[in-house]
Amino acid sequence: MTNQKTLTVANEILRQLGGRRFQIMTGSNSFRGDDSSLTMNLKRNKARAKYLTIKLTSMDDYTLTWYNNKAEVIAIDEGIFCNMLQDVFTERTGIYTIL
């Protein structure tokens, strides 16, 4: 993440997920962001997802798109609000985001 101003949304998504604590608990890494989304690499999980993109929509909610190691979409969760992000992540991956 280079330009702080254009990454405000990406930084806010990461904060809503739990920030550094989320990174440590889930093993997620290689965070990339732009003006409306955050993408990350995931460790092995029950969904077999390799990448996750969380995109802010015009309705002020999020769409989570899960990809396998061939960059094929394996699942999409739409209409997710910020207070639901951690629960949806845990439900989909089986990886807890908090103790």
How would you describe this structure to a colleague?
The chain has 99 residues and is of the alpha+beta class. It has one domain. It is 26% helix and 30% strand. The chain is built from three helices and five strands, in the order H-H-E-E-E-E-E-H. It has helices at residues 8-17, 20-26, 85-93; strands spanning 29-33, 37-41, 51-56, 62-67, 73-80. A five-stranded antiparallel β-sheet has the order 1-2-3-4-5, with helices on one face. Strand 1 and strand 2 form a beta hairpin. The N and C termini lie far apart (27 Å). The model has no long low-confidence stretch (mean pLDDT 93).
| Poorly predicted regions | none
Strand order of the largest sheet: 1-2-3-4-5
Please tally the β strands and state the result.
5
How many helices does DSSP assign? 3
The share of residues in helices is 25-40%
Question: Which descriptor suits the 3D outline?
Answer: globular
How would you characterize the largest beta sheet? 5 strands, antiparallel
Structurally, how many domains make up the residues?
1
